[in-house]
């Protein structure tokens, strides 16, 4: 499964469009991570727990998007975009969307 | 008990933030500069196609992200600054560090998968709210860098 955020996959020809596919996940961090991040907030710097959490969540959103693309018979997703929205206190939604296509 | 009061006093937190925060920041900047120099050959552009006529062998999407936060001392400075308004110098290096780090991580992923160009790079920033404190206190800022990594070869 190819994935790209450009309007075409360089070096490949688009032969068919299948429309927009999306994938999303809603995550929250557990209280332990919150407390650790609270301590880290005193000295500043990277909050590794949150970085990992968001990376995992984003990967999951991409995987779901690609599953959907696979189910409509595509072999690539182009023009992929990411979005984030906070739905509730301490929880975030991460979504990815793109256009499912068949390339050769 | 006295010790507990001392460790949670604002003055102690300010000093802790000031000394450790400055150290962490300068170490981080040093590491960013070193790695940027190392990865100078991997060019990332924000065009959606390569402006040169070269052959592309494979393409893949790469991402890099980082969550960073300010230290207690700088947050305090920023709050003071907000009273009179104007440029908040203590926040600027934070976002700069985060963006450069995110781009570096994206490039690291591209390098690890054997690519030598990144096109259509995009940067996104979002604020993480702390679930405690009514979501008003910012827990950090997330910066995401993503783009399409390419393996290219000069046309012979």
Note the main attributes of this structure.
heterodimer; A: 104 residues; alpha+beta; Translation Initiation Factor IF3; four-stranded mixed beta sheet; 2 helices; 36% helix; 44% strand; B: 156 residues
Characterize the structure shown.
The complex is a heterodimer of chains A (104) and B (156). Chain A is an alpha+beta fold and 104 residues long. Chain A has one domain: Translation Initiation Factor IF3, CATH 3.30.110.70. Chain A contains 2 helices and 5 strands. In chain A, strands 1-4-5-2 form a 4-stranded mixed sheet. Chain A is elongated. The model of chain A has no long low-confidence stretch (mean pLDDT 85). Chain B has one domain: Translation Initiation Factor IF3 (2-Layer Sandwich), CATH 3.30.110.70. The longest helix of chain B is centred in the first third of the chain and has 29 residues. Chain B is elongated and about 75 Å long. Chains A and B meet through β1, α1, β3, α2 and β4 of A and α2, β2, β3 and β4 of B. β3 of chain A pairs antiparallel with β2 of chain B, so a sheet runs across the interface.
């Amino acid at each position: 499964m190819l994935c790209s955020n450009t309007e075409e996959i360089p070096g490949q020809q688009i032969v068919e469009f299948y429309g927009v596919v999306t994938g999303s996940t809603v995550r929250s961090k557990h209280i332990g991570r919150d407390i650790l991040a609270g301590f880290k907030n005193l000295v500043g710097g990277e909050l590794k727990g949150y970085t990992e959490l968001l990376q995992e969540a984003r990967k999951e959103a991409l995987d779901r998007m690609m599953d959907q693309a696979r189910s409509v018979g595509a072999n690539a997703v182009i023009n992929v975009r990411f979005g984030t929205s906070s739905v509730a206190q301490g929880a975030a939604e991460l979504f990815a969307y793109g256009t499912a296509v068949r390339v050769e | 008990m006295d010790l507990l009061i001392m460790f949670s006093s604002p003055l102690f937190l300010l000093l802790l933030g000031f000394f450790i925060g400055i150290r962490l920041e300068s170490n981080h900047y040093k590491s960013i500069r070193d790695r940027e120099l190392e990865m100078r050959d991997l060019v990332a552009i924000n065009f959606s196609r390569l402006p040169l006529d070269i052959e592309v062998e494979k393409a893949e999407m790469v991402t890099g992200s980082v969550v960073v936060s300010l230290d207690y001392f700088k947050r305090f400075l920023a709050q003071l600054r907000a009273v009179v308004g104007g440029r908040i110098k203590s926040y600027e290096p934070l976002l700069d560090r985060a963006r450069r780090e995110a781009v570096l991580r994206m490039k690291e992923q591209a390098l690890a998968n054997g690519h030598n160009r990144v096109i259509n790079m995009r940067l996104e920033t979002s604020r993480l709210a702390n679930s405690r404190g009514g979501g008003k206190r910012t827990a950090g800022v997330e910066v995401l860098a993503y783009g399409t990594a390419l393996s290219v070869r000069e046309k012979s």
